[in-house]
Amino acid sequence: IVPVSTELKSLGVIIDSHLRFDRHATAKTQACNYHIRALRHIRRMMSAETAATIGCSLVLSRLDYCNALLHRAPSATIHKLQRVQNTLARVITQSSGRASAEPLLQSLHWLPIKQRIQFKLAALVFKIHSTSTPSYLNNLLHQYIPSRELRSCDGLRFVVPRAHTELGKRAFAVAAPSIWNSLPADIRARDSLQTFRRHLKTYLFSQSYGLP
Q1: d(CA 92, CA 24)
Q2: What is the CA radius of gyration of the chain?
Q3: How many whole angstroms separate alpha carbon 181 and alpha carbon 159?
Q4: What are phi and psi for residue 156, nearest 5 degrees?
Q5: What whole-number distance in Å separates Cα of residue 77 and Cα of residue 62?
Q6: SS3 letters for 39-60?
Q7: Neighbour-count burial of 10, counting CB atoms closer than 10 A to its CB (0-12 exposed, 13-18 middle, 19+ buried)
Q8: Using one digit for the tens of pLDDT, what is the confidence trace for 163-211?
Q9: DSSP characters for 142-188?
Q10: Cβ–Cβ < 8 Å for 65, 117
Q11: Three-state secondary structure call for residue 96
Q12: Residue 149's pLDDT is what?
């Protein structure tokens, strides 16, 4: 008798049978909260800049690891990770536990979890298009070529395959071109990864906090 497991761990990512990634988010939350508690104990002994550097190194790096898998994940899963980021922001800024997290995140110039996922996918698409590697992902992206010239053809776009299920919309072949096509043309037209990432973060930051 071969027992069936409801989840498995691969390269640090816990994959459940329904691809909700809830167990994965819980494990990340526990690991991050451990480091946040340690940081809270020594926060008064360091500057805000040093605390932010340590927080990014120990906590945000864990939240960003393989976060592209969480695109369109259930809101409860994303909310778990967002609470971790909110707690970290309060510790770094030495704010009370009831302080609103949004202005704190904005002051630290941090993107919320949902926008960090979009940032990761968009940057990945840029690198794939620029280098044509890895081939197994490059083969999933097909440049959109209109049958005739249109005013709406304002730069590089990719074909978005039809997906009839919510799970299908989370696939890389659908999610990646959807996010890419939603970006302004001037961002998609950048010629270097560094410039693209800088303008992309500015755009997502403005979208997240309602800035002009």
Answers
A1: 25
A2: 19
A3: 9
A4: -65, 130
A5: 15
A6: HHHHHHHCCHHHHHHHHHHHHH
A7: exposed
A8: 889 889 999 999 999 999 999 999 999 989 999 999 999 999 999 998 8
A9: -B---SS--TT--S--B------SHHHHTSHHHHHHHHHHTS-HHHH
A10: no
A11: coil
A12: 65
**DSSP conformation class of 5:** P
* Alpha carbon of residue 128 to chain centroid: 17
Task: Name the burial class of residue 114, with classes exposed (0-12), middle (13-18) and buried (19+) by CB atoms within 10 angstroms of its CB.
Answer: buried
- What 3-state class would DSSP assign to 195? helix
Other CB atoms within a 10 A radius of the CB of residue 97 amount to 8
| Residue stretches of the chain with pLDDT short of 50 | none
Amino acid at 70: L
133 contacts: CB under 8 Å, gap ≥ 6? none
pTM for the full model? 0.90
DSSP run (H or E) holding 77: helix 75-93
Return the SS3 of 108: helix
**Of the candidates 118, 120, 111, which has an alpha carbon nearest to the alpha carbon of residue 209?**
111
Two structure tokens written together for 205: 């930051």
Residue where the block lists tokens 């440049």: 143
